[in-house]
Write a structure and sequence with these properties.
Order of helices and strands: HHHHH
Strand content: under 5%
Helix content: 55-70%
Length: 143
């Protein structure tokens, strides 16, 4: 059942990459706040020619732009990788669905679709006890 395990691993990897994108977006939001790109509420102008505004933690505009550009590049690369992994995941799903044999069907329905053994037995037309036996001889692919 290495195919099922590979599929599950790929799904986890996609989730991790999505979390990374969200972290980059949160970092951009914090960066914008730190740079005060929208300007402080009580002042109408900021001197961005200075690297830092006096007695604040505000970063300079050029530094802001560099960091923003770097983060946006990371987001672009990650989103492209996610699209490619999702395309691969869909192809794997199609191939897994075409697997034959009761063992593979039970493992697919249990581990991928998240169905209970009762639901699997009902859908496949077998007794619960038989499906339970098939499931038991096919170790779960996630822990």
């Amino acid at each position: 059942m290495d195919t099922i395990k590979s599929y599950k691993d790929l799904c986890e990897e996609i989730e991790i990459w999505k979390w990374r994108v969200e972290a980059y977006k949160a970092e951009i939001k914090a960066l914008k706040k730190l740079a005060k790109v929208y300007g402080p509420s009580d002042i109408t102008g900021i001197d961005y020619s200075q690297p830092k505004v006096q007695s604040t933690n505000q970063i300079g505009f050029e530094e802001f732009l560099e960091r923003l550009h770097k983060l946006e590049n990371h987001i672009y690369i990650h989103e492209e990788a996610i699209r490619n992994m999702e395309k691969c995941r869909r192809k794997m799903e199609e191939r897994i669905k075409r697997l034959e044999g009761i063992d593979k069907k039970v493992v697919y329905m249990r581990d991928i679709e998240g169905k209970t053994l009762v639901e699997i037995a009902d859908k496949l037309g077998y007794s619960y006890d038989y499906i339970k036996e098939v499931s038991a001889r096919n170790k779960r692919t996630h822990y």
